[in-house]
Amino acid sequence: MLTKAYLCAPEKACFLKLLIGMKYTTEINRRRTFAIISHPDAGKTTLTEKLLLFGGAIQTAGAVKSNKIKKHATSDFMEIERQRGISVATSVMTFEYDGNLINLLDTPGHKDFAEDTYRTLTAVDSVILVVDSVNGVEDQTRRLMEVCRMRDTPVIVFINKMDRDGKNRFDLLEEIEKELNLHLHPMTWPINSGKDFKGVYNLYDKSLVLFTANTKANDEDAVRISDLSASLLEDRLGEKDAAVLREDVELVDGVHGALNNEDYLKAAVAPVFFGSAVNNFGVKEMLETFVRIAPTPRSRETSKRLLDVNEDKFSGFIFKIHANLDPKHRDRIAFLRVCSGRFERNKYFHHVRLDKDIRFSNPYSFLARSKDVIEEAYPGDVVGLFDTGNFKIGDTLTEGEDFFFTGIPSFSPEIFKEVINKDPMKTKQLEKGLLQLTDEGVAQLFTQFGGNKKIIGCVGELQFEVIQYRLLQEYGAAVEFRALPFYKACWLTSTDDKKLVEFSRFKQANIAEDKDGHMVYLAQSEWFLNTERTNNPEIEFHFTSEIHKAE
Ligand code: G4P
């Protein structure tokens, strides 16, 4: 075999390039970047913790849970402030499993649910959806799944809390399919639920995994049953349950057959697992399937072309900006998702919007490597960049080429409030503060058409408290908010400009402009929105607005 010592200079360069290329491909192929989504209390934190335990990223149960915003804290806002450092750390959790490098991006729930919960989903390649077997599909899940559907994000479903008396398994699957518009494909099948829960049958490797509470269920606990008619099933489950399982499996197998990975990757079907996160049951089966089938970092659309993840030039985009609430430290952390090439510390990269080259001396990674400064990052990775105001959501960094990543939308807020300036002497500071804070992407700023009324729109109520506090602390601007009776903002487009002008004249009280001057209709209710849609067929009403569009 040739070794480097026998090669001349050009050959050496060639050899080196080949080695780098091989390392690069290996690094991409071992990455899985995903998020767990659920309705609050379905078990997302518990499942996250079990995955981190399997990955060795944490050593004790409770490490993530204690970082969760306390449900009964006297003020959620003060709690958020106290937890700020920790929540940055848990924004991205990286761990290794079976040679794979897994980046788990947090999607905050509860009252801190914000637009960047939605936008985080634009930075992942797949999601795991946790559904509570007792409560079934709930509102927040529905909204998060809409974002996944927009992007055809592959989904794996984990039906949790099988140790509680839940809904009938067939009814539950039907409900999920109907409510979330998903085609499900069971990978495991439960034997009863609640106090009669006996375990799951793994339809993929045809093994029976018996339930014992609080175990580290692993392969040794599984009973291989290649033939379901064997009497071993009666020995393990008893006659009645064995008969029901045989019947169920026949039915499920008959309907679904084997999983077609391509269908999952196209988001045409979603594999389903049953388990109990708190008992660490069914989690390992899911994790193993996840690393086997979940997509590696994917190629992405840009304003110019489809950017191949294997291109060797670096590119990435900012999907989240996390501000420091301490006024003495105005710095922010911009979250960069690497999309191609290699991110390197201290190398100059091109900030496309500002048309300037910048380098980062202290880029860092998150939890697992405990905020270590990193030297390099690969597609699928998320890097934290200290920012003093250079970044807006959707900004693109490249090695020189001018393009923007598309598919990073602004989402319609759900709560709207008018900003009341309590100190006219501070109007300038207020305007600057509103512009800068809304650049961070957790709230949107609208200006009412024909007037100067400033409207803030958010997804979660808590953001108003944060904005009010920060405007005062960081900009010296005192404000109050007045609730407005709108339920959604719709961005308006039409091939006929005259129709838009006419509509905005008739509906002045409901028309506003976003920060980029795009026209928005603020609808009071679904009924009003549907009526306007019917009455104005030439106008399109969109619940999202692309930050960057294809050229
Ligand atoms: P979230 O992040 O989705 O909001 O949910 P989280 O993991 O915090 O779980 C919500 C509650 O459900 C927790 O109980 C948790 O222990 C419980 N839980 C999670 N998985 C299971 C399961 O498989 N079976 C059962 N029976 N319960 C489960 P809690 O009382 O609110 O908190 P804690 O006191 O247990 O920490």
Give a topology summary.
Blueprint: H1 9-29, E1 31-38, H2 44-54, H3 76-89, E2 92-97, E3 100-105, H4 115-120, E4 126-132, H5 139-151, E5 155-160, H6 169-180, E6 184-186, E7 188-191, E8 199-202, E9 207-210, E10 222-224, H7 232-237, H8 239-256, H9 261-265, E11 270-274, H10 283-293, E12 300-301, E13 306-307, E14 315-323, E15 332-340, E16 343-344, E17 349-351, E18 356-358, E19 376-377, E20 382-387, E21 396-398, E22 409-411, E23 415-421, H11 427-439, E24 443-448, E25 454-458, H12 462-475, E26 479-484, E27 488-494, H13 497-506, E28 511-513, E29 519-523, H14 526-535, E30 539-542, E31 544-546
Sum this structure up briefly.
The protein has 551 residues and is an alpha+beta fold. The chain has 3 domains: 30-293, 3-Layer(aba) Sandwich (Rossmann fold), CATH 3.40.50; 301-398, Rossmann fold (3-Layer(aba) Sandwich); 415-542, Peptide chain release factor 3, domain III (Alpha-Beta Plaits), CATH 3.30.70.3280. 30% of the residues lie in helices and 26% in strands.
Descriptive overview:
- With about 550 residues, the chain is of the alpha+beta class.
- Helix 11 packs across helix 12.
- It contains 14 helices and 31 strands.
- The radius of gyration is 25 Å and the shape is globular.
- It folds into three domains: about 260 residues, P-loop containing nucleotide triphosphate hydrolases (Rossmann fold, 3-Layer(aba) Sandwich), CATH 3.40.50; about 100 residues, Rossmann fold (3-Layer(aba) Sandwich); about 130 residues, Alpha-Beta Plaits, CATH 3.30.70.3280.
- It is about 30% helix and about 25% strand.
- The strands form seven sheets. Strands 26-23-25-24-28-29-27-30 form an eight-stranded antiparallel beta sheet.
- The two termini are about 50 Å apart.
- Guanosine-5',3'-tetraphosphate binds next to helix 2.
